[in-house]
Amino acid sequence: MTLDQATIARLAEHLENAELMARDVTKISDDHPDMDWDDAYAIQYEIRRRKEARGHRTVGLKAGLTSRAKMKQMGVETPVFGFVSDYMSCPDGGDIKTGELIHPKVEAEICFVTKAPLKGPGCHVGAVLVATDFVVPAVEIIDSRYRDFKFDLKSVIADNTSASRFVIGGRMRDAAELDLRTIGVVLEKNGEIVAMAAGAAVLGHPAAAIAMLANKLAERNEDIPAGTFIMTGGVTEAISVVAGDAINVRFQDLGSVSMRFV
Ligand code: OOG
Ligand code: MG
Predict the structure, then answer these.
(1) Ligand 1 in contact with 104 (CB < 6 A)?
(2) Is the pTM value of this prediction over 0.90?
């Protein structure tokens, strides 16, 4: 850690205000070039604490930058982890208000719900599958608080990995019945196919993102509790959306997820 508690609290407030007021800010590493990974996650945890203190429930965890396509798009090499809050959840087929967002993008994600705790270090794909209750598809709407979506890893971790909205849809399926590596995903914007991928785009197997998260949490001596909803990260690059756009994502064997931006 290089930042003191007061600076962490100030940066958390700064980034959370940018989110809540839908106003972009410059990336925080510009002013704090020496900040380290622990500082970045400490700021994110402080944002989470602030939301929970105001009565918001943390309703899921997320992995991001887990696919080559996303890493390449953002120019980074390492996955990141964040959380989602109750108010970020939006209904399948519903409207998403762009007025509350800065510059939203959509991502197609395969998600897991656990039925047993997962604990690292040494958590692996097999352990994740044994602890999985079901898988379900979702679209994440990310909205970096940083100007022009330009950031480095530490800045984006502090900004809760651009978490903004998410839509769970499709149908829940038993992971044992599916080959999650070969599941096809087709992302359509306004009726046109704009991106596609297979599940293996995420670290070779989407469950690997959950194992990485469990191993990351082990550093804090935390586990992933039973009953946790976890998003494994976009399978393709993220797609920008504006008011008027309609998104529909078809997941092989898992149904589809749709929303309209207004
Ligand atoms: C960071 C969040 C990435 C994903 O699924 O890859 C993410 C960003 O690209 O803004 O959620
Ligand atoms: Mg994502």
Answers:
(1) no
(2) yes
